[in-house]
Amino acid sequence: MKNAIIYGAGGAVGDQVARAFEADGIRVFRTGRTPAPGITVVDALDEAAVEAHADAVLAEAGSIDISFNATSLPQAGIQGTRPAELSVEAFERPLAAYPRSSFITARAAARRMIGQGSGVILTITASPSRTAVPLMGGMAPAWAAVEAMSRGLAAELGPHGVRVVCLNAAGMPETAQLTEVYGLHAEAYGITGDDFHARMAERTLRKRLPTVAEIADAAVFAASDRAAAMTGAILNLTGGLIAD
To answer: 212 and 13 in contact (C-beta within 8 Å)?
Structure first.
């Protein structure tokens, strides 16, 4: 049996990916910042906490085969504000959190996977990391940094049998965070959240935004042996919002 650690498992994406992994026969160790049933409290920005938890998982399970960081920040004050009115602190907040968290958790996994000679590290970003989107503040640069880091880690870890794949997603409007984000952007444009949702869906090739379940299914595939040839890749899960 494979073992996976999911950071941010209390959120919609982390929870759905955890369920999808479990349905695929993977044992999942869920972590999050907030205490909840079935979740171990681990601050993914805390190096010592992440390392201690990884040691505990390895001691209990015998291996760490998959690591997935689905952590996020509240978006109020970060997105939906024009650059001329955005504070430096608000711009820096995602830049300080997302790359740091992704690196800390990926490094913890890598240190243990190298010894095994195998493993998969998954990261996640969103479509604005690769397109020109207004009102994103530091979010798009932060996601772009995670993508670049993922490629670099793949190059470093590939010779040790460890793969790194970044999921670049769009949509998932059924989540509370995307509802918040769409509301912030809609307010800036003077339209309703539903109108902004429709605008985003229209920009995709399928005319509908990807769902959390679709993202989770892709994560299961990317982490599986069926995707053994995939590493250093940015997996396009945008429904054609980014056509590449």
So the answer is: yes
Asked if residue 131 lies in contact with residue 200, where contact means CB atoms within 8 angstroms, the answer is no
Kindly give the pairing relationship between strand 39-41 and strand 27-32: parallel
User: Domain extents for the chain?
Assistant: 3-172+211-237
DSSP string, 155-215: HHHGGGTEEEEEEEE---TTSHHHHHHHHHHHHHHTS-HHHHHHHHHHHSSSSSPPPHHHH
> What's this model's pTM, rounded to 2 decimal places?
0.94
Residue 187: C-alpha distances to residues 19, 79, 123 (Å)? 34, 11, 30
How many angstroms separate the CA atoms of 119 and 64, rounded? 7
Domain 3-172+211-237 has CATH 3.40.50.720: yes
Burial bucket for residue 74 (CB in 10 Å: 0-12, 13-18, 19+): exposed
pLDDT the model gives residue 180: 86
The CA-CA-CA angle for residues 46, 150, 234, to 5°, reads 130
Instruction: Tell me the mean pLDDT in the region 223-239.
Output: 97
Element (H, E) at 37: none
Q: Convert the pLDDT of each residue in 55-88 to its tens digit.
A: 999 999 999 999 999 998 877 778 888 989 999 9
How many angstroms from the chain centroid is the CA of residue 133?
A: 19
pLDDT in the model for residue 150: 98
